[in-house]
Amino acid sequence: MKELLRMIHGLFLKVALIPSSFVAAAPRPAASEVLTRHLLQRQLPPWTSFCVRYSSVHNDQFGMSNFNWSVQGSNYQILRTGCFPFIKYHCTKAPPQNLDFEDKFFSILKVINLGIPCLAYGIGCWMVVGAVETVQTSVGPVSVYFAYKESEGAQY
Question: Chain centroid to CA 59: how far?
C-alpha cells in the first residue's frame, strides 16, 4: 500500500512540477540530508520549524509523518508533512519515544482526507514565508523557509 501511495504521489509531483521537468535535472540532496544539515547548522537547537521545496530535494522520507531523528547524539521528534509545494518539518529535541502509533495515525488521516488540508497548508505556508536560510548540502545549497526568523537558541 505504501508503495502504491508513493507511486501516486510521485506522479502527482511530476505533473505539478511539470515546468521544472523541462530544465536539465540537477542533482538534489535527500530531504533527510537537508534535515540533518539544518539541525547541525543551527547547532542542534531545542526546536525549529521550516519548509523545504519538493523541487529542491529527493523525498526519501515519504510516508514518515512522526518519527525520531538522531543527529550527533541528540534525538529530535520530527513531525513532518507534505504541504505542496513544500515539505514541512517541526523538530523538537526530546528523548526517543515509540512514535509508531502517532506516525500511522497521521499517515491514515492524510490518506482519508486525500491530502486536501496538506495542500491548503502548503498554500498558507507559501503566503506567510518571512525568512529564508541556506543549508549547505553535499550537492550544493538548498533554501529552507520559515514563517518568521527564529531566534538562535530560543526555547520556544
Answer: 8
C-alpha grid cell for residue 154? 530560543
> Can you tell me the distance from the alpha carbon of 7 to that of 25, in angstroms, rounded to the nearest whole number?
20
Q: Residue 89 to residues 23, 50, 127, 129: CA-CA distances in angstroms?
A: 27, 5, 17, 14
pLDDT digits (tens, 9 = 90+) for 29-47: 999 999 999 999 999 999 9
Q: Give residues with Cβ within 8 angstroms of 149, minimum separation 6.
A: 130, 131
What is the tens place of the pLDDT at every residue in 52-97? 999 999 999 988 999 999 999 999 999 999 888 899 999 999 999 9
Q: For residue 48, which of 118, 129, 151, 143 has the smallest C-alpha distance?
A: 151
Instruction: Calculate ∠ Cα 124-62-122, nearest 5°.
Output: 5
| H helix and E strand count, the chain | 5, 6
- Confirm if 69 and 76 have CB atoms less than 8 A apart: yes
Whether pTM > 0.85 for this model: the answer is: no
**Could you tell me the sign of the dihedral formed by the alpha carbons of 96, 98, 103, 106, in that order?**
negative
Q: How far apart are CA 140 and CA 127, in angstroms?
A: 26
